[in-house]
User: Fold these one by one.
Assistant:
Number 1:
Amino acid sequence: KKRIVVLISGSGSNLQALIDACGTGHIAGEVVGVVSNIADAFGLTRAENAGVANQVLSHREFSSRDAYDQQLIQCIDEYTPDLVVLAGFMRILTPEFVQHYQGKLLNIHPSLLPKYQGLNTHQRAIDAGDETHGVSVHFVTEELDGGPVILQAKVPVFAEDTASDLAERVHEQEHRIYPLVVNWFCQDRLTMSENCAILDNEPLAENGYA
Ligand code: GAR
């Protein structure tokens, strides 16, 4: 079984989906540790309830991004993970951090990348009048929200949608596709090579919708 460490900053509903999928055998792995940069993140309670080791590493106690990320690497590596999963971890990572976990660092981003990198993705999709929005799971590289996409899912945008309506619709898809991708990795079917995601020896196009 692969050892998975999950990084969070908030509610942790994706963390919950991953823990649940490990529990039911839909992921051939185990969440062995959770690290949050926010002390009162509800995801910590979810980890606690599931009996998963968890800890807070607050960025506020560090004078630089480099110093924080170095300590974060130390925390994570104590769990000897095979895979590190960002699940609503709302921090920009240093190149050193990203390189340390090259090829074994996944992120989920609430937009159809390369559209809407960064924050407020749901409101931006509404403001642009998009009829379709969605979510992307990708390998993390030094380019912010720019690493190779593994899997995307689309949702419709309705005329009366608020950002939170849309976020809720996207979350349902997140909870479906993140466990799928994590399981591919745990089954040794998914790798990154030369900035491309490879599944079962086939390079994945950027429009691999689930
Ligand atoms: C998710 O929607 C995820 O896509 C997003 O944060 C939310 C976390 O929800 N991630 C980002 O915006 C990364 N820049 P959760 O805490 O309930 O899993």
Number 2:
Amino acid sequence: VMKTTQSIRQDFLDFFRERGHTIVPSSTLVPGNDPTLLFTNSGMVQFKNVFLGSEKPGYVRAADVQRCLRAGGKHNDLDQVGYTARHHTFFEMLGNWSFGDYFKRDAILWAWELLTRVWGLAPERLLVTVYHTDDEAYGIWHDEVGVPADRIVRIGDNKGAPYASDNFWQMADTGPCGPCTEIFYDHGPAIPGGPPGSPDEDGDRYIEIWNLVFMQFDRQPDGTLLPLPAPCVDTGMGLERLAAVLQNVHSNYEIDLFQRLIRHAAALTGTEDLANGSLRVIADHIRACAFLIADGVLPSNEGRGYVLRRIIRRALRHGWMLGVRGAFFHRMLEPLVEEMGAAYPELVAGRETIEAALAAEEARFAETLDSGMKVFEDVAARASGGVIAGEDVFRLYDTYGFPVDLTADIARERGLRVDMPGFEAAMQAQRARARAASQFAGAVTLPAELASTLAPTVFDGYDAHTGEGRVLAI
Ligand code: ATP
Ligand code: MG
Ligand code: MG
Ligand code: MG
């Protein structure tokens, strides 16, 4: 029998509950404890103060399913969506945690037990990486678990950048940090002329499924690493990637949950080919958008709200590519609630707000999407040297509401690039004009990141194209 995504969530929590872990709820996508972070991008975000020692949670072992968004800020996978088999903007991260309790040995043995015994994965399909100096983790994998040496890869630091390695994790320039060990699944060699979504040459054969972080040092301002008095474990496993493995498909988009969303997207857009990449993007983006709105973000021209607006507009443009000329995207909410409402009651509770906000943004962009696409065709036709001029990118942005990443994404599909410095210059010029025209004496412009920490995200009017800056009267 096929393991459903829903039952995998449950298996994970049951496994760690039986091993003394307290099950904690997912925190929201908008981090409540960290104004410098745009979105919750991993499970550790809600435990940051626990790792730093300023918060004591009343348990030393925890497990959870954390909703994550990687579409802005430090982690941004938005441009991967539709191009790789394994990246989403919104995804769910399964995690188990030790706060000064168990360490490498238990974390590794349990991960292996869950993957190979509970879920029955063939050990010969799994590979692991360790940080190059972490002989302790290497020893556990090799001597206790029995992973042969040719399937354990030591990963060093990136050249010239100490500790800037995928296998050495740090929260910040100073503070808790430590080596990682990552578990990869081998989906098998590329199948020449194989079905869409079969492993290709682009690094999609070996897919990282689980990352185990061992926080054992406290980095000092001078760079030295002191041992932490109580080492911690932080693990993260992508639910959708795991579901792909357990459902014996290569791409995340072929799992049960995504297939149902894709079928709805196909019906709403009148698309017959279920493998059409635009359907995948739409299915991905409805999750990000719906959960962002459920967590209190609304489309706007700055900060988090602007990330949401950009994702919605990207989805609408994909609908447009499939020939849709009316509203459709907000109707993806209903199938999404059906898929994920049981695990996330906030989605059910926020239903009306989410649908209304999506529909409003859809109506707003509908006014300019069609003409903007025509303008795009014109400017693409006269792009010289494969580069769309900054002035044109700015016009699409300013007059047609095309966020620059949307224009860049359309350009990429045509093998074109956008002139970013030229766009920035046009933007600066417009800002200078706006400043000169401002009637408020002493008006200041704040960078978007800062502005969004001061003001709650609000539903700005479409016309308020103030770019990244927000003009505040003081
Ligand atoms: P990758 O190298 O494949 O981009 P990562 O190393 O950036 O992954 P981590 O930060 O280690 O990912 O996150 C822990 C786990 O979360 C990963 O092992 C993976 O299973 C999952 N994951 C990470 N990014 C995504 C994404 N964009 N979409 C879906 N799952 C993801
Ligand atoms: Mg990544
Ligand atoms: Mg990685
Ligand atoms: Mg990783």
